[in-house]
Design a protein that fits this description.
The complex is a heterodimer.
Chain A: E1 2-5, H1 11-23, E2 28-32, E3 49-53, E4 65-71, E5 85-90, E6 106-109, E7 122-128, E8 142-147, E9 163-166, E10 177-180, H2 184-197, E11 209-213, H3 225-231
Parallel strand pairs in A: 1-2, 2-3, 3-4, 4-5, 5-6, 6-7, 7-8, 8-9
Antiparallel strand pairs in A: 9-11, 10-11
Chain B: E1 3-9, H1 17-27, E2 35-41, E3 49-54, H2 61-75, E4 78-84, E5 87-92, H3 98-106, E6 113-118, E7 121-127, H4 130-137, E8 146-152, E9 167-168, E10 176-183, H5 186-195, H6 207-218, H7 223-233, E11 236-243, E12 247-252, E13 261-264, E14 268-272, H8 275-281, E15 289-290, E16 296-300
Antiparallel strand pairs in B: 1-8, 1-14, 2-7, 2-8, 3-5, 3-6, 4-5, 9-10, 10-11, 11-12, 12-16, 13-14, 13-15
The chains are: A alpha/beta, B alpha+beta.
Chain lengths: 232, 301
């Protein structure tokens, strides 16, 4: 196991040190005293395990493909942005734009997520044990977004094929968002993914609300001008 | 960009507010290299007002300060004064009419500007980095109850001391604000206030936040109500901190466009644009979270 102490080092030096450790064959890396610095652990492409023993700043674990990244405390804006594959687990809460535009992998937030969680997702899974803020899931194209607690306003606005699940109350649905009953398959999937990543959340898959696109905005038809006026 | 910070000690009158706010600002220095400033709340001096005046950079500061002291004496018992770099600091009777004092001082010389008046409030700001602020004024020695700070990246108005933040709301003692963002209906609001006789000192859109809040508080609103009403009346992107003699509060705009994180423990509350500022200034184990859209919080002691 490699241990990297941030101390007075710059972000560039810390990230270079992570790369050196991976190149030397390390599979477990602990980064101590990250002090909420920005851009830590970005673009790691190997299936290693990186633990940040503290809080991280903006864009942590962005553009990764394969590693498991754990953050002991909270994360700033743009956590795991555009990740391809891997796992990102935050024990605390996450700032705006967590898991934005991810293509694959799993992002797990044990605390709450702020605004714009999982916007423009193109795949992957996002799991939040607590609540999420305003505009979560906006324009999601694929993948699944699960919020065990409450969802904020304008939830799941302008969705494509991302499927959202909410355990608590939804403050307000976004344009074209539609609530459905989860199917048996949905409930089974929720039970198994929560058992794996968030066993303490202990809510039955069947108790979730499912939110999907109403598909009203998918094709533009000028005869439906009214729909567009309301949406925009 | 810009960086804003706030610190609020829940107990005691002698917290190291200066050291904490300065450490937080230093961590956000790169968000705002144009200017740095703090509004710190200390121990009241016999209920007298602390009047802080920008003297400008022409001529002998000591004699200019004496000129103001002489003028103040004729209005209402001004006693001691001291000077530090561009500022003079006066103590004035608590029965003093704030508007009278302000116009008396500012009519003496066009360079004079009253930067803050309050029982506890002291504002110090200048162009340059937080390090420079410390070098010129030694803000780290300040002890008190709470404070707010700002590092500025100017995007819409000139860079000088007057356009720096925090802003005191002229006419309302002890109310100070810092703002990160843009107020997009600024011109409209400013025109409306100017028609009612409110004087604006700068072309900085953040100044209207101070004017707005002081107008609300003068009407009898609580700080909580005033910040909530701001969401209705001020457009644009903003994370704002406001402090009064006994309160610290924040508001985050309708679209959550500007960052703001906070933590609260049994001993203190800390709020900042980025968590890096809180971690740099306050060791210990606590959790930090981002404020939600339209969130308003006020702490009071």
């Amino acid at each position: 196991m490699a241990e990297i102490v941030c101390g007075a080092r710059t972000t560039r030096e810390i990230n270079a040190e992570i790369r050196r450790a991976i190149a030397a064959g390390e599979r477990e890396i602990v980064v101590k005293d990250p002090g909420a610095r920005h851009n830590l652990g970005v673009a790691v492409l190997e299936p290693v395990r990186i633990r940040f023993a503290g809080s991280v700043g903006y864009y942590c674990a962005g553009l990764i493909d394969g590693p498991r990244v754990e953050i002991d405390q909270s994360a700033g804006w743009g956590l795991a942005e555009s990740m391809m594959n891997g796992e990102v687990v935050v024990r605390g809460s996450a700032g705006n734009g967590a898991a934005a535009a991810i293509r694959g992998g799993t992002v797990v937030i044990h605390g709450d997520a702020a605004a714009r969680l999982g916007v423009s997702m193109k795949g992957g899974t996002v799991l939040v044990a607590g609540s999420c803020g305003y505009m979560a899931g906006f324009m999601g194209q694929k993948g699944r977004l699960v919020v065990c607690g409450d969802a904020g306003d304008a939830f799941a606005d302008s969705l494509y094929e991302t499927v959202c699940f909410v355990g608590g109350a939804i403050q307000g649905l976004g344009t074209d968002a539609v609530v459905e009953e989860p199917s048996n398959e949905d409930a089974d999937w929720l039970d198994s993914i929560l058992a794996k990543y968030l066993p303490a959340a202990a809510r039955r898959g069947r108790d979730f609300k499912k939110v999907v696109a109403g598909r009203k905005l998918w094709n533009f038809d000028k005869r439906e001008w009214k729909v567009w006026q309301e949406a925009l | 960009m810009c960086g804003i910070v706030g610190f609020f000690a829940k107990d005691g009158e002698q917290a190291e507010v200066g050291t904490t706010i300065l450490a937080m600002l230093r961590a956000l220095g790169c968000r705002g290299p144009d200017s740095a400033g703090v509004a710190l709340f200390g121990t009241p001096d016999d209920g007298r007002f602390v009047v802080r005046v920008k003297l400008g950079d022409r001529g002998d500061l000591e004699s200019r300060a004496r000129q103001i002291a002489g003028r103040l004496e004729t209005i209402h018992g001004c006693s001691q004064f001291s000077t530090a770099a561009s500022y003079a600091r006066f103590l004035a009777s608590s029965e003093t009419d704030l508007n009278l004092v302000t116009s008396a001082i500012e009519s003496l010389d066009k360079d004079f500007e009253v930067v803050s008046i309050g029982h506890r409030l002291e504002i110090v700001k200048q162009t340059g980095s937080p390090d420079n602020l410390e070098k010129t004024y030694g803000v780290s020695h300040f002890t008190g109850t709470h404070g707010i700070g700002h590092t500025r990246l100017s995007t819409e108005s000139r860079v000088d001391l007057s356009h720096s933040q925090p802003f005191w709301s002229h006419g309302f003692p002890d109310l100070a604000i810092v703002h990160n963002g843009h107020i997009t209906n600024y011109h409209q609001l400013r025109r409306r206030y100017e028609q009612r006789g409110v004087r604006f000192y700068t072309e900085n859109d953040s100044e209207v936040v101070a004017v707005y809040l002081s107008e609300q508080l003068k009407k009898g609103s609580s700080l909580q109500e005033a910040l909530e009403r701001m969401l209705r009346d001020l457009d644009g992107s903003y994370s704002c901190l406001a402090a009064t003699e006994r309160q610290l509060g924040f508001v985050k705009d309708d679209f959550a466009l500007k960052p703001l994180v906070m933590t609260e423990t049994d001993e203190f509350v800390a709020v900042a644009t980025e968590e890096i500022a809180i971690r740099a200034a306050l060791p210990g184990s606590y959790s930090v979270r981002e404020a939600q859209v339209r969130e308003v919080r006020v702490w009071q002691r």
